[in-house]
Automatic annotation (TrEMBL):
This is Alpha-1,3-mannosyl-glycoprotein 2-beta-N-acetylglucosaminyltransferase. Residues 86-173 form the ILEI/PANDER domain. GO terms for cellular component: Golgi membrane. The cofactor is mostly bound to the substrate. Pfam families: GNT-I, ILEI. Its EC number is 2.4.1.101. It comes from Meganyctiphanes norvegica. Belongs to the glycosyltransferase 13 family.
Length: 375
């Protein structure tokens, strides 16, 4: 059930053309800015915003946020349909419009939004970023997260309140293409005959934004990727969210020399990493492992639940041994147990002389004394 009380819908449109005095169109619920030499159409019915710039080659985006789902459409094709509520961050390639990464944080849960600044910093300049809130995403959005969004160019970041809806589109480190919000004002309490409050699950109206983004030719991106080795450049042209791994000026290392802890007694002990489809977390965890004294690529085995192309490409890029497995089971607990059973069986089969196994999950960091501690 949706209810919209005192709706405020703001759409900010920025374009690459000229610097003439802005054309302004206003309605009861919409406010738009554009340049005089463009075709800009804005209207609001419920909570809907639309802008059109038709005379340049572009990527056509349509983003929707409702109570049930959030969705992203690129050039008329549905590329993401997201049912989990929270803060969605979607990175699109500026030439093809393909999805390079999608991160979702359930920021309605206390503490979950602390990761927002870290994730935003991991994205590459020049990519197209779509930010969508769904459900209770704003409920526990911290000041740190709001500040990170504001520094990115989200003008409404500091003003968002409970159950407000936000859609924002911009080029990372560049132009802002669209921003729209729907403000939710909680109505007076409504009770049924049993004096039970019946409006506690009401939310703001659905929000949809459409915008056109000029295509950046591949040559502009290749000038950066020429500074990277071929394998890394290919990986970074497909995926995003890896920070320094895809940096042109100061790329992170791909090879980490093996080092031994003095008087180590775990030289035969393998490290088993349990992974799923969270490649950015897996990369972050593996880097903290490979940097430590006592690490060795030969003793690391990643067991992945499922077949995920991005995880596969990442493991090949880092030259890390991995095995893929589809967990079986009726319940989530059964599938987890099945996956762990397979992982332990696999690592002990591969490392027949191992007296023990160190097990690490994909989203964990390791301390500098990790291997010396186990030794």
């Amino acid at each position: 059930m949706g209810i919209l009380s005192d709706v405020t819908l703001a759409l900010l449109m920025h374009t690459v053309l000229g610097s003439d005095p802005p054309f302004q169109a206003q309605s009861k619920h919409a406010h738009a800015h554009g340049d005089l030499d463009q075709s800009v159409h804005t209207h609001a019915e419920g909570a809907y915003a639309h802008n059109v710039t038709a005379h340049i080659q572009h990527i056509a985006l349509a983003i929707t946020s409702t109570v049930q789902y959030a969705a992203v459409t690129v050039n008329g094709k549905d590329v993401l349909h997201m049912s989990k509520e929270g803060l969605h961050m979607v990175v699109l390639h500026p030439s093809s419009g393909h999805v390079m990464t999608h991160r979702n944080l359930q920021t309605g849960i206390f503490g979950a939004s602390q990761e927002v600044p870290v994730i935003l910093r991991s994205f590459t300049r020049g990519r197209v970023l779509v930010i969508v809130t769904q459900g209770d995403a704003v409920l526990n959005l911290s000041g740190l997260a709001r500040g990170a969004l504001a520094s990115l160019g989200v003008s409404s970041a500091e003003d968002l309140s409970y159950r407000d809806t936000l859609i924002w589109v911009g080029t990372i480190g560049g132009r802002i293409w669209a921003e729209a919000t729907v403000n939710y004002t909680k109505p007076k309490s409504i009770h049924n005959s049993r004096q039970t409050q019946v409006n506690q699950h009401m939310t703001s109206s659905s929000l949809q934004v459409e915008t056109l983004i000029p295509i950046v030719e591949l040559g502009d991106i290749a000038s950066c990727q020429n500074n990277l080795d071929l394998a890394r450049a290919k990986f970074c042209s497909l995926y995003d969210g890896y920070g320094a791994l895809c940096s042109c000026s100061d790329p992170a290392a791909l090879n980490y020399p093996s080092t031994e802890v003095e008087y180590s007694v775990i030289t035969e002990v393998p490290l088993l990493v349990i992974a799923g489809n969270r490649p950015a977390y897996l990369y972050r965890s593996l880097v903290t492992v490979l940097k430590q004294h006592g690490s060795s690529l030969e003793r690391i085995l990643v067991v992945v639940d499922g077949f995920h192309q991005e995880v596969r490409d990442l493991m090949k890029l880092l030259n890390v041994t991995f095995v893929e497995h589809i967990a079986q089971g009726v319940t989530p607990s059964a599938r987890i147990s099945n996956h762990y059973h397979f992982a332990l069986t696999t690592v002990l089969t591969r490392f027949t002389n191992a007296p023990k196994v160190i097990i690490l999950e994909e989203d964990l960091f390791v301390a500098p004394d990790f291997f010396s501690y186990f030794s």
